[in-house]
Amino acid sequence: MAAAAKDLAASYIDSEREKLKDLSLALWNNPEVGFEEHKAHQTVTDFFEERGFTVQREYRLPTAFRAEFTNGAGPNICIICEYDALPEIGHACGHNLICEAGVAASIAVKAALAANLITGKLTVLGTPAEEGGGGKIDLINAGAFDDIDCAMMVHPFGGNFIYISWLAIQRLTVTYRGKSAHAAAAPWDGRNALDAAVACYNNMSLLRQQMKPTCRIHAIISKGGVKPNIIPDETKLEIYIRAPNQTELILLQQRVEHCIVGAGKATGCETNFVYEPKGYASVNHNRTMGGLYQKYAEEQGINFIEPLEKLPGGSTDMGNVSQVVPSIHPTFYIGIDAQIHTVAFRDHAAGDEAQTYTIKAAKSMAFSTIDLLSQPQLMAAVKEEFTRSMQVGPVE
To answer: I want to staple 113 with a disulfide (CB 3.0 to 4.6 A). Which of 4, 71, 238, 296 is the partner?
Structure first.
């Protein structure tokens, strides 16, 4: 029955290819930033309703959704769609393709469920604001994953990876307050908040020499003063701190805080820093699920090149999902060597070559989901691995 289910799933995706491409291009041509994805929300939920899913629009969040289809008893497998874009450069992270792949996999699995070739439940979650807004964290806190047995999504990227290191991240804003003065007539009367910001930035640059190669710090001075002849009395920095796990992230945060406080003391400025409330966790890859996805992708001619060293791939709120349910977050090459968050990647994400790889990723998710629904021993292995990883840490 599982083989027949996969045949049906593959043929169903093929029959919908043009409409799936149209869906992807509708998102690409109308980029919307996090929590403002109203057109995308309407477009995708309409697509699911037209194909017989039970859809909850504005699910827990104004631009989130939940689409479900059930046939008898069995696990509840979640496929995740993202559809937010970046400011100014649109879908340069390829979330239009993430959404297309998730939709394609979902309608394929639904077809197999509706034909009674497999039993269980499919849940599709549309999760807004991955680009810094932490929509999945809001959904976790709202109970959206409480009845989910495992979750998966895919992400376009500069290469095919199953277990790339998606880093935990903490973002913070630093504010220095000094005292303004005329920079030529009486500089001794001032306390230079820009000096504090520059000292902080330089302190972190020095810290990088002693950081592990798997950790990252990025910073910008977002407010540096008004005019050169006025000693700045207030400056701000935006800082991102990343590490491969929560333990290392906390240790690195402490060292960055020393850089921040030391700069304030050295310049005589008041120091204040505030962390954003929704930090992203690192992705806990479930290798049982990942092995399924890799098997079906390789059967379609996809080659995976795992790095000799763990190379960071950025950060995602899918990491937070992976801390509450077994999860995978593979990447798929779309035919261009450019990295995400670039204009070149954005433009390629609208092309025909990207479509070919997106469909293969969708089929790999669909086939993996069919196996998880039809083979209880696989689902048991997934949950056993997850429980073990949360107790002793994931496999490196």
So the answer is: 71
Q: Where are the alpha helices (DSSP H) in the chain?
A: 2-15, 17-29, 38-50, 95-114, 135-141, 193-207, 246-267, 287-299, 318-322, 343-348, 352-374, 376-392
By the 10 Å C-beta count (0-12 exposed, 13-18 middle, 19+ buried), 228 is classed as: exposed
- The interaxial angle of helices 352-374 and 95-114, nearest 10 deg, is 40
3-state secondary structure of 177: strand
Element (H, E) at 191: none
Other CB atoms within 10 A of residue 365 CB: 31
| Matching residue, tokens 């959206």 | 144
Rounded CA Rg of the chain: 23
Per-residue pLDDT of 80-127, as tens digits, reads 999 999 999 999 999 999 999 999 999 999 999 999 999 999 999 999
Whether 367 has a pLDDT exceeding 60, the answer reads yes
Q: Are 119 and 34 in contact (CB under 8 A)?
A: no
**pLDDT mean over 176-199:** 97
Is residue 224 within 8 Å of residue 162, measured between CB atoms? no
In angstroms, the CA 253 to CA 313 distance is 20
Contacts of 108 (CB under 8 A, 6+ apart): 8, 9, 10, 12, 13, 362, 363, 366
pLDDT category, 192, cuts 50, 70, 90? very high
| Separation of alpha carbons 369 and 387, rounded Å | 20
Name residues whose C-beta falls within 8 Å of residue 247's C-beta, 6 or more positions apart in sequence. Answer: none
Given its phi and psi angles, is residue 244 left (phi above 0), alpha (psi -120 to 50 degrees) or beta? alpha
Per the document, the length of the chain is 396
Indicate whether 310 pLDDT > 70: no
Of the candidates 243, 239, 11, which has an alpha carbon nearest to the alpha carbon of residue 107?
A: 11
Count of C-beta atoms within a 10 Å radius of residue 48: 24
SS3 assignment, position 169: strand
Q: Give residue for tokens 């920095």.
A: 237
